[in-house]
Design a protein that fits this description.
Elements (H helix, E strand, L loop, with lengths): L1 H27 L13 E4 L3 E2 L6 H9 L9 E2 L2 H10 L13 H8 L3 E14 L3 E14 L5 E14 L4 H18 L3 H14 L23
Parallel strand pairs: 1-3, 1-4, 2-4
Antiparallel strand pairs: 4-5, 5-6
Length: 224
């Protein structure tokens, strides 16, 4: 019995020594240096072209997508500043962007990159069985310094919900909703969902190159 007690104590001490060694190694181990900072790159969010039946869709999506861009390390030009410059250039609609030289936008806006695109769908369809809300957007990222399209992506969100047409009141609401919903449906949540998907797929802003490693220490000559 005495031998068993001594053996148990030995195992316990060994475990304590092992835990202490691991903890010391974790505290004193080398830490990874922080990543280098992002290259300062300014992005202007231009008005979006509209291929949908909703007049407000370009403004809604632009307002949702714009504040999501910095999550990838980019600097933002304010919408007010962008719109003021575009207004001086006579540009108010997204469809006018195609006819402008990117280098001219670069000179006027002072931004490095620009995002814009097309609202392909923004609709709310009411049927006797379900309501369907659809938003589809294409976003393009262009380097204004070269005119090169760096990246583009198209995302679509479809939300279905059951329609309530029970009884006369339900039928009346269905008729009113079918007419009113097509024209004035609030699709802000769907626009936000599409904007979030596209912002997550957007490429990261490049980072500064890491600093060069320090030169090796000079060899010391042993003294005689």
């Amino acid at each position: 019995m005495l031998r068993a007690m001594l053996r148990t104590r030995s195992i316990g001490r060994l475990l304590l020594v092992t835990i202490a060694f691991v903890a010391a190694a974790g505290c004193g181990g080398t830490r990874r240096p922080p990543p280098p900072p992002f290259v300062r790159t300014t992005v202007a969010t231009l008005p979006f072209d509209n291929a949908s039946a909703s007049i407000d869709a370009p403004k809604i999506f632009r307002a949702q997508f714009h504040p999501m861009i910095p999550r990838k390390g980019y600097q933002l030009q304010s919408l007010a500043q962008t719109d003021a410059v575009l207004q001086e250039m006579g540009i108010q609609l997204g469809g006018q962007i195609k006819g402008v030289d990117p280098k001219e936008l670069r000179a006027k806006l002072g931004a490095d990159l620009a995002v814009w695109g097309t609202i392909k769908q923004s609709s709310s369809m009411v049927t006797g069985i379900y309501n369907r809300r659809t938003v589809e957007v294409e976003v393009i990222l262009t380097d204004l310094r070269t005119g090169e399209v760096i990246w583009k992506d198209t995302r679509k969100v479809v939300q279905d919900s059951a329609a309530n047409v029970t009884g006369k009141a339900g039928l009346a609401n269905f008729v009113v909703g079918a007419v009113d919903g097509l024209a004035r449906a609030d699709l802000t949540k769907e626009h936000q969902a599409v904007a979030n998907q596209i912002a997550n797929s957007m490429p990261w802003c490049p980072r500064e190159p890491p600093p060069p490693p320090p030169p090796p220490a000079p060899a010391t000559t042993p003294q005689p």
